[in-house]
């Protein structure tokens, strides 16, 4: 079953994020074709222009390239580029939000570090 779209951001952004996730996980490898605009539009029941906009962002970021008559392919180095970008996003946006929430809830540094260490040992 396909994950439903959220209302907090445009569908093309969510699709863009999903493709980044697939590249990061290795589900779509470097050198492989990504699904066609028509296929994605059909699978997700969304407008093909929405898919094209998400794909254009991937092209603009240098993660995929258009090959005339063949489709779009993930470029070499794309996975590492996505990983670096996501690491930066986590460290500059998500982690500060997590720490602010922990402070708000009165979770001290030792408790937070202990819990994170425990979770990392359980799920390496």
Describe this structure in words.
It is a single chain. With 124 residues, the chain is mainly alpha-helical. The protein folds into 2 domains: 11-76, Arc Repressor Mutant, subunit A (Orthogonal Bundle); 79-122. Helices cover 62% and strands 6% of the residues. The protein has 5 helices and 2 strands; from the N terminus they run αααββαα. The protein has helices at residues 11-25, 37-44, 48-60, 78-104, 109-122, and strands spanning 64-67, 71-74. Strands 1-2 form a two-stranded antiparallel sheet. A hairpin with a 3-residue loop joins strand 1 (64-67) and strand 2 (71-74). The radius of gyration is 18 Å and the shape is elongated. The protein starts with 10 loop residues before the first helix and ends with a helix. 14% of the residues are buried.
Topology (elements, then pairings):
Elements: H1 11-25, H2 37-44, H3 48-60, E1 64-67, E2 71-74, H4 78-104, H5 109-122
Antiparallel strand pairs: 1-2
Can you give me a brief rundown of this structure?
This protein is mainly α and 124 residues long. It has five helices and two strands.
Can you write the helix and strand succession as a string?
HHHEEHH
Shape: elongated
How does CATH name the architecture of the largest domain?
Answer: Orthogonal Bundle
Low-confidence parts, pLDDT < 50 over ≥5 residues? none
Number of domains as seen in the coordinates: 2
If you consult CATH, what is the topology of the largest domain?
A: Arc Repressor Mutant, subunit A
Largest sheet: 2 strands, antiparallel
What's the level 1 CATH class of the largest domain? Mainly Alpha
- What is the topology, as strand order, of the major beta sheet? 1-2
Mean pLDDT: 94
What class do helices, strands and sheet pairing give? Answer: mainly alpha
